[in-house]
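Subject: Thioredoxin domain-containing protein

B.,
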Amino acid sequence: MAAASNMVREITSVEDFEQFITTSNGSVIALNFWAPWAAPCAQMNVVFEELSTRYPSVKFAKIEAEELADISESFDVSAVPFFVILKSNKVLARISGGNAPELTAALNQYSSATSLPPAQPVAPPVPASAPQVEEDLETRLGNLVKAAPVMLFMKGTPAAPQCGFSRTLVGLLRERGVRYGFFNILADDEVRQGLKEYSDWPTFPQVYVKGELVGGLDIVREMIDNGEWDDVLKDAGVEAPVASSA
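Prediction pasted inline below.
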């Protein structure tokens, strides 16, 4: 695990999280849900630490999303990085993805104290005129499908799948010992609808390897059965794990 700064508390257990919330004494809290395999998290971890020095009235904490899945699911974390701003157990804002300007704006809005003068902006300023939605979504989807070497777009989360196909595919990946990233498409209708067109694949779940669509449940299952799955991982430069004997 990456170490947190002195201003950012690294949550290591559910009990630790509960103690952190209890001792925050009604302060505004910023939570950073991250994963070591997701490249955008590395950049946003730096941003998060920088922001913790600018907003001394806010309590900052990092949570490794997959290691503490119960906490992640309680906040409907659908992808990483994912940020939650809350106060007195009330969620004030959710920010999905590496959107530093949006995170900064939320802290500006909900912080009870004026931030310290910034020495450097943590990200380029957001243009006053919004860019075209289609370009924004295309870029976002392109980043999402490459967020991890193996990405699963599913209904629900691996711990709580919301359809039988997603549940079966999660089981197959678990049996193969595959470490993968996931995105809960039920939590973001823009991604859910946009990915159908982006991938030219109308159903879920969908599996991407190194940003390239492999297919859904039937295709992945067939590839595992005939031995092609490990070859796909190898050709993409992803280390093929040893199948679980369980």
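Residues 107 and 155 are 30 Å apart (CA to CA).

T.
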